[in-house]
Design brief:
Blueprint lengths: L7 H12 L2 H5 L1 H7 L6 H26 L3 H8 L3 H34 L7 H9 L14 H17 L4 H27 L4 H9 L9 H14 L6 H7 L8 H33 L3 H4 L3 H15 L4 H35 L3 H16 L7 H31 L3 H9 L14 H9 L7 H28 L7 H24 L5
Bound molecules: phenylalanine.
Length: 509
């Protein structure tokens, strides 16, 4: 008996939970501000409609059609594409090794919130006292035990959340999606009622239309959409493979995408309103206090929390609880996609796979708990998202766009004998679209084929090539070439090798 979601809501929440993560709070608002403010919403929506949603539909329909996790679903298109599926999952594995460490920091900061332990100098507290950051990636230093503890706690939660596969996930996501939404609303209300908030929001959203002429802004929109929807990791394919045969595809893809966007947009209000307040209190311009990533969450936000006129600790606890619940379902979606695939192919016992996964990923994660951890985290993060993910994005479109078989078209014709229109469209991929449409309340047209076959691979291809050129010019983030190689290229090479091994290894029937 294959595993099935217990309800449509479980599936949708799980998929939304995977998409909504730290990125909605600490990445989107910043990317939006830095790429034209309110005007960025235009390229963002274009990217969403031409790449995000089409690929979401692709992943949902492929997973649903084949009813097996990502490697096998892609392998059914053409055998060798199974490698791509494993590679995608390995990129996800790479991400969850450090994502869990960030969750571990959040656990620590949740504790610090109780008495605002970060004190006055939050920056020094985070970098010098908490991370004890060294001078360069090569100066590894000792592990920080509090962070290891946080990491262990995270992995226990992650493994517990996927304990019985979708049966458990389907229940847990009610909490891990709804709790952060409620907290986010509380934080937005708190934020916009602070003095200076409007100035912050003006900063976030004032449209600079000239930005639209810059191709980099468009690329930023596409890469944000990819990252944010958790597409190209095999997660959405795998989650969709657990859908019952009668389930909607297109509608669900739109729903998940819009829910994710709304959260990002609202996240911007939570971030920029308090940045406005910060600027107002310190007399600094907003442009000087705006930050993204760990700096925003672990330095700037704590500073602002300490400034709040009342209930500072409560807001601190809420903020870090929000980050934890936001992130955890993204993390376990990656783990579940990997675990489900290994179980499907090698017929291992779930309990062994769960625990094995937690231990291996947890041990790999130790590197990020050392004094050089933040550097490695930064390098690996950059490479996973800017190379690994983009390669999968391009190849997946290529695989489905050009190799999906005609069989489905024929099946479709049997089902819908009056519809001759499919013969006028000379693409095989039409079979998958017909399949998606036959399952859906509202349907997609030939534009979908066009996006999958041409538009997305071209835009993402350009993104990939510009990234490569940047790296040829100089190593990422000013690190040494050696560190860049170890944390970046080597990881990608190892993942390719492991993906091929997993593909070659005989599965069990
Ligand atoms: N979609 C997540 C976010 O926006 C990012 C993510 C991608 C997390 C892949 C885990 C894996 O934060």
């Amino acid at each position: 008996m294959r595993d099935i979601w217990e309800s449509r809501t479980s599936f949708i929440l799980a998929s939304i939970g995977s998409a909504i993560g730290l990125g909605n709070i600490w990445r989107f608002p910043y990317v939006c501000y830095a790429n034209g403010g309110g005007a960025f919403l235009i390229p963002y929506f274009v990217a969403l409609l031409t790449a995000g949603i089409p690929i979401m539909i692709l992943e949902f329909s492929l997973g649903h059609r084949i009813s097996r996790p990502a490697p096998m679903a892609l392998g059914s298109v053409k055998k060798e594409f199974e490698i791509l599926g494993w590679f995608a999952l390995l990129i996800g594995f790479g991400i969850c090794t450090y994502y869990a460490v960030v969750m571990g920091w959040c656990f620590n900061y949740l504790g610090f919130s109780v008495n605002l332990a970060w004190g006055q100098n939050t920056e020094s507290f985070f970098f010098n006292q908490f991370l004890k950051i060294s001078d360069s990636p090569m100066q590894i230093g000792g592990v920080q035990w509090m962070i290891v503890l946080g990491l262990a706690l995270t992995w226990i939660c992650v493994i517990a959340a996927i304990w019985k596969g979708v049966k458990t996930v389907g229940k847990v996501v009610y909490f891990t999606v709804i709790i952060p939404w409620v907290i986010l609303i509380v934080l937005v209300v708190r934020g916009i009622t602070l003095p200076g908030a409007l100035e912050g929001l003006r900063f976030y959203l004032t449209p600079q239309f000239s930005a639209l002429l810059d191709y980099k802004v468009w690329l930023a929109a596409y890469s944000q959409v990819f990252f944010s929807l958790t597409i190209g990791f095999g997660v959405q394919i795998t989650y969709a493979s657990f859908l019952p045969k009668k389930a909607d595809v297109v509608n669900n893809a739109f729903l998940v995408s819009f829910a994710n966007n709304a959260t990002s947009f609202l996240g911007g209000f939570a971030v920029f309103s308090v940045l406005g307040y910060y600027a107002h209190q310190t007399g600094l311009p907003v442009s000087e206090v705006v930050k993204s990533g760990p700096h925003l969450a672990f330095v700037t936000y704590p500073t602002i929390i300490s400034m709040l006129p009342f209930a500072a600790s409560i807001f601190g606890i809420l903020f870090f609880l929000m980050l934890l619940t936001l992130g955890i379902d993204s993390a376990f979606s990656l783990v579940e996609a990997g675990a489900a695939s290994v179980i499907d192919k090698f017929k291992l016992k779930r309990i062994h796979v769960n625990i094995g996964f937690g231990i291996i990923a947890g041990l790999v994660g130790i590197i990020y708990t050392t004094r050089s951890g933040l550097y490695w985290l930064d390098i690996v993060d950059y490479f996973m998202n800017n190379y690994g993910l983009l390669v999968v994005g391009i190849l997946q479109c290529f695989a489905v766009g050009y190799f999906y078989s005609h069989k489905d078209v024929q099946n479709y014709v049997k089902e819908y004998p009056h519809d001759r229109s499919i013969f006028s469209i000379p693409a095989k991929i039409v079979g998958l679209r017909r399949y998606a449409n036959s399952k859906s309340e509202f349907t997609v047209g030939a534009w979908w084929d066009f996006c999958v076959k041409y538009l997305t691979p071209i835009v993402v291809g350009i993104l990939f090539i510009t990234n490569i050129f940047d790296r040829i010019k100089s190593p990422y983030g000013g690190y040494s070439r050696w560190a860049e190689f170890l944390g970046g290229w080597l990881v990608i090479i190892v993942f390719i090798v492991v993906a091929v091994i997993l593909y070659k290894k005989k599965g069990r029937e």
